[in-house]
Fold VOC family protein.
Amino acid sequence: MMDHMSLHVEDLPAMRVFYEKACAPLGISVVMQVTKEMTGYADMAGFGGHKPFLWLVGTEKTTPPLHMALKAETRAEVDAFYAAAIAAGGRDNGRPGIREHYHPNYYAAFVIDPEGHNLEAVCQKPE
């Protein structure tokens, strides 16, 4: 099981704002910040619940773009994630809905973040 990952971003302040807004409906927020002086190479923002699992690292844009799926507890959280991400400047890459090609309860929404990454929220529980 994965503990955490890093996403290198070109514009850390803008990406932090986007991820704060997009992830809020999922209960994900900035739980830790470290400075370039502390790391020796970059400012970082750690997103999670009680501990960081996603680090935005202010260096340069990760290429090629990544796909990341964030777990939602309910379908309503998926809907709220999508609305918040679009309002924060994300681009539609798949409105909320069932993706039966994965399985009958795969309810997800997809947005492209400001640096081109495909961010998904998914609830895999029955209604």
About this structure: The beta strands are 5-9, 29-34, 44-48, 52-58, 67-71, 91-92, 97-98, 107-112, 118-123. The two ends are 26 Å apart (CA to CA). The domain at 5-123 is CATH 3.10.180.10 (2,3-Dihydroxybiphenyl 1,2-Dioxygenase; domain 1). DSSP finds three helices and nine strands in the chain.
